[in-house]
Specification:
Elements (H helix, E strand, L loop, with lengths): L7 H7 L5 E3 H4 L7 H18 L2 E3 L12 E2 L14 H7 L4 E2 L1 H24 L4 H10 L15 H23 L2 H11 L6 H18 L8 H20 L7 H21 L5 H8 L3 H9 L31 H4 L5 H9 L4 H11 L9 H8 L3 H15 L2 H7 L5
Helix pairs in contact: 5-6, 5-7, 8-9, 8-10, 9-10, 12-13, 16-18, 17-18
């Protein structure tokens, strides 16, 4: 039955209090044209609030809703290797919104969002909070204000409108997810993990949803593809390289690559730097500078060839290690100690030899050494401590390092 045969006031008057309408029941009253749309949704919202009308969601397989959908998107290639096999199977079961369905969803979305924003405005939410609630789909972090803190019934009405809006937005997004997957197959294997591309693309769908205007007679698919492509280009430009290269440089490199590819087809060889510079009207030195930015970073943990063939880091010299030929000691410990002790005073050298039994002697006590040198045991200890500190200097320790255990 076409409800447009009756007038909008007559339709609103025919509604009973607490009645439930589906999305499809709203469509005839949201097709009044660009100028009448804003007026009609205000009348509908006011009447629905007065009669406490509930709006029920619909599923794509519903006979009245099915004409707004078409067959699910067929994958161009499997994403199983990227760990997305489950997501791929789920998407293969989701029907796509067609042109009719897109415009219906866009009008329903605007109406239900208008209802939610009006309810939030009455609840004391400012414009920024209203946008945040509509974008997130929940009221977390947004406390009730004024009389709404105690108005349980009014809070329930706001929550109901938020659920109605959320259900429609979810159906809208699910019907458009194929747009992201079509773009994923174009941008995968370019240095960004496929799951990251999927996530970034799905987020861009929500941004497209917020900015889409059905009055321009452009399909949501066309508008959303722009947002998805921009999101993918942004993550590729900013995330592929360890050292970020400015976007304008990467765009210039793309022009150079395109020219070189065209040159191979035209003359059978890549264009020279001078030829590329002439076609882009920039100096050859500038082209060379841009080409040098194409160098990419390689992980030291990257595998070499097949499994078990080592890592890239194994091929790089570690200058922190002492070369093997320098680690080989060509003198004995006794000779090296004699060289080191030559840097001490005669008394310090004698005390260390007597105290630690160097040269095959028997170690002596501090008292015994003091009697030999005719000084106190405390003085011997002080001289010994000074000598040991001198032996701990970096230059001396380095000469003794090969003998350390």
């Amino acid at each position: 039955m076409n409800r447009r045969r009756t007038s909008l006031p007559a339709f609103l008057k025919s509604l009973s209090k607490g009645a439930a309408l589906t999305w499809r029941d709203l469509d005839p009253w949201l097709d009044g044209g660009d100028r009448a749309f804003a007026r009609d949704i205000r009348k509908l919202d006011k009447a629905f609030d007065a009669k406490e009308i509930r709006i029920l969601p619909m599923r794509p397989e519903d006979p009245r809703e099915a004409e707004g959908y078409e067959m699910p998107y067929r994958q161009q290639g499997s994403l199983r290797r990227d760990g997305l096999s489950h997501y791929e199977r789920e998407l293969a079961r989701l029907p796509r919104l067609n042109r009719v369905g897109e415009f219906r969803m866009a009008k329903r979305y605007e109406f239900l969002r208008f209802r939610l924003e009006e309810a939030l405005k009455q609840a004391g939410f400012d414009e920024e909070d209203r946008k945040a609630v509509c974008a997130s789909g929940n009221l977390e972090g947004h406390p009730w204000k004024g009389a709404f803190r105690r108005a349980t019934r009014k809070q329930a009405a706001v929550r109901r409108k938020l659920e109605e809006f959320g259900a429609l937005r979810e159906a809208y997004i699910r019907g458009a997810l194929y747009i992201v997957m079509k773009a994923v197959h174009r941008y995968r294997n370019l240095g960004i993990d496929t799951p990251d591309l999927v996530q970034e693309g799905n987020l861009s769908l929500f941004q497209a949803l917020e900015g889409f205007d059905w009055r321009r007679s452009v399909r949501f698919k066309t508008y959303a593809e722009y947002w998805v492509n921009q999101a993918f280009l942004k993550i590729l430009y900013n995330g592929v390289r360890t050292v970020r290269v400015p976007v304008w440089v990467q765009k210039a490199l793309k022009k150079i690559r395109d020219l070189q590819s065209a040159g191979e087809q035209e003359i059978g060889r890549p264009l020279s730097v001078e030829e590329v510079g002439d076609r882009l009207d920039i100096p050859a030195s500038r082209v060379e500078e841009l080409l040098r930015t194409q160098r990419r970073s390689v992980s030291l943990d990257a595998a070499l060839g097949g499994e078990g063939e080592g890592r890239v880091g194994d091929l790089i010299e570690d200058d922190r290690l002492t070369p093997v030929e320098e680690q080989v000691v060509d003198v004995s410990l006794e000779e090296r100690l004699a060289e080191v002790l030559e840097g001490l005073s005669e008394r310090e050298c004698m005390i260390l030899k007597l105290r630690f039994g160097l040269g095959g002697r028997k170690p002596k006590t501090l008292l015994e050494i003091g009697q030999i040198l005719k000084v106190s045991a405390e003085r011997v200890r002080q001289i010994q401590e000074t000598a040991i500190k001198r032996l701990k200097l970096p230059a001396v320790r380095e000469r003794l390092a090969p003998f350390a255990t």
